[in-house]
Structures are given as structure tokens and as C-alpha cells.
Amino acid sequence: MKTVQFTGQIMKEDKPGGWTFVTWPDSAIFLGTGKATKVTAKIEDHECAVTCLPTGDGTHFLPLNKAVLKATSKTIGDTISIEVWTLQ
Question: What is the pTM (predicted TM-score) of this model?
Fold first, then answer.
């Protein structure tokens, strides 16, 4: 099992229905791909499955839904701790 930990600022796309997300630096190196990839993540103390989506520059973003934001008591602009693991 591979794991990585990082922190990031919660951001939201500036358009109706835009994603709420955290950018994952060096994700393509960790994942070994620049494609969308399903991982398990521990966001603060909330464990969930998430699909990391590529940005095209060697990073991915982790979408954060309302349930995750509520469970972690976080909002846009806050810094959040994330641990990601894969079975690779």
C-alpha cells in the first residue's frame, strides 16, 4: 500500500455548480498517471473514497462534497489535512 499526506487550501471554482476541491501537488508522480484515479482518502478524520481528477499540469484535484465539508467542519478558504492511499 502506498500512502501520502499533504495539506491544502479548500477552493471553489468561480462558476455556477463549480467544484469545491483541494489541489494535490505531485499527484501524477504518486499515482503514476495523469488520468482520473479512484483512491481512499482520510480528510481530517473523515475516511472516504474519492476520484482524483487531473488538471493537466501534473496535479490532480480532490473534489470535496458537502458531506465531507460538514463532517470536517471546514469551508472554502480553510486549510485541510489529507492522507491518500492506494493498493498499488
Answer: 0.90
